[in-house]
Write a structure and sequence with these properties.
Elements (H helix, E strand, L loop, with lengths): L5 E7 L3 E9 L5 E10 L3 E2 L2 E2 L2 H19 L5 E6 L5 E10 L9 H11 L8 E13 L2 E4 L9 E12 H12 L4 E7 H9 L2 H6 L1 E6 L4 E7 L2 E8 L3 H12 L3 H11 L12 E3 L9 E3 H25 L10 E4 L8 H9 L3 E3 L5 E2 L11 H13 L12 H17 L2
Parallel strand pairs: 1-6, 3-19, 6-11, 12-17, 17-18
Antiparallel strand pairs: 1-2, 2-3, 4-5, 7-10, 8-9, 8-10, 12-13, 13-14, 15-16
């Protein structure tokens, strides 16, 4: 029996870089062999600010995971995030090519290509084209039109775009570590692969990934992505608010948030106090309810910004499967209760599904994106030892030209 190939997911975040190395199993589960995490350098709000620092941090994480698995990762699926990401709906229409009217794979490719002919902003590139539903002649809501008969094929798609400069900076950082890129994937899309069930996607759900500097969201309905967005506020802003509100250092604010933080102030007793002597030499008492009020105010603001995105697509309070919270910021005690209240929907934490591993950190919400990238790679099939960027519009042009050139050489 041949050994299944390893898949690597590389999540380059604003506060930490995380890697998951996994292998597929016969039951399509993810067998995780290695997880590594290092603090980020040279990255701010999902955007590269120093290539040298970012390369150094990514290399450190790769070395760490190599010590766990015994094999250096040679290629990886890389997550892309940041407030430069844009999402828009698109519509594509073509005439079916076969005389008998049977829709084939080539028709599917052509209609998706037709949906890509949108007015892309200057210096932006298409990362993903996500077909939502097809229409064959006048029959809407078709999920897979291959094999059906018709004259006219239409598609409703979601186009995800990223700034060309940011894409190039990110890929440059990864290449300089000696790792090939199998593909770039929007982080929240990858995260959905790891934490959302098929039923949740069918019913209608919103995935909220609360990162350090950004919060990314994905709305799914009828099994397909309906809307994606990145909000430039994250759990790091909560830490900043604590530092300002309590007049403490950022490091101490982070410790207070993790050890004593709670997102629902009403659940904390007014007389509860925290003695800072266990963290510093100072013998100062801080009111725990005041700490909770600071956290609650900022978390509500983040959720209000997310709800604004839901209002854009008329889904506020209308998603039966509710809210799924993931990312490092979702670990905050009481976050689920605040989400239930603000969105008027059921809410829960998004733990990875169908994953097996002896590693303790497998259920850490912070690793959802890295695991999702590995699962995405497993589904797409990796291309060891070579570049494979199926979602970049520029690459489509290049591969098309190469194919034409090869055909011209054939007798």
């Amino acid at each position: 029996m041949s050994r299944l190939p390893l898949v690597t997911g590389l999540d380059i975040g604003s506060t930490a870089i995380r890697i998951a190395v996994a292998q597929g199993t016969a039951h399509e589960h993810l067998q995780v062999l290695g997880l590594a995490e290092v603090p980020s350098e040279g990255i701010h709000k999902g955007v590269i600010t120093s290539i040298e620092d970012a390369v150094s941090a990514i290399s450190g994480c790769l070395e760490k995971v190599e010590r766990m698995t015994g094999t250096p990762p040679e290629h990886a699926w890389v997550g892309i995030n940041g407030s430069h990401i844009l999402a828009q709906s698109s519509h594509g229409v073509i005439a079916v090519s076969k005389p008998n009217g049977e829709i084939g794979e080539d028709d599917l490719s052509r209609v998706v290509e037709a949906a890509q002919t949108v007015a892309t902003p200057p210096n932006y590139e298409i990362l993903h084209v996500l077909p939502r539903s097809f229409t064959v002649d006048s029959q809407p809501g078709v999920k897979d039109p291959v094999g059906m008969t018709g004259v006219r094929l239409e598609v409703e798609a979601q186009i995800i775009q990223g700034q060309t400069a940011q894409i190039k900076n990110l890929t440059k950082c990864v290449y300089r570590t000696g790792v090939d890129i199998d593909g770039l994937v929007l982080t929240v899309l990858a995260n959905a692969e790891a934490v959302l069930s098929k039923r949740q996607k069918e019913l209608g759900v919103i995935l909220i990934n609360i990162g350090g500097a950004t919060t990314s969201i994905l709305v799914c309905e009828e099994g397909d992505p309906l809307h994606a967005a990145v909000v430039p506020v994250g759990s790091g802003h909560i830490t900043n608010d604590i530092a300002i509100g309590l007049r403490t250092s950022i490091d101490l604010a982070e410790k207070l948030k993790i050890d004593y933080g709670h997102a629902v102030a009403d659940e904390i007793n007014k007389r509860d106090e925290i003695n800072l002597s266990e963290f510093t030499d100072e013998n100062i008492l801080i009111n725990r309810k005041h700490l909770a009020e600071i956290i609650e105010a900022r978390l509500e603001e983040i959720f209000d910004l997310v709800d604004r995105e839901l209002n854009k697509i008329d889904r506020s309070g209308k998603l039966p499967a509710g809210v799924v919270l993931t990312g490092g910021g979702a670990k905050l005690s009481g976050a689920v209760e605040v989400a239930k209240r603000r969105f008027r929907l059921p809410a829960c934490l998004g733990y990875p599904l169908e994953v097996t591993s002896p590693l303790e950190r497998i259920n850490d919400l912070s690793f959802g994106t890295a695991l999702g990238l590995a699962r995405w790679g497993l589904k797409q099939g990796t291309s060891p030892g070579g570049l494979h960027l199926p979602h970049l519009s520029g690459m489509h042009d290049v591969t098309g030209k190469v194919k034409k050139w090869l055909q011209s050489l054939m007798p």
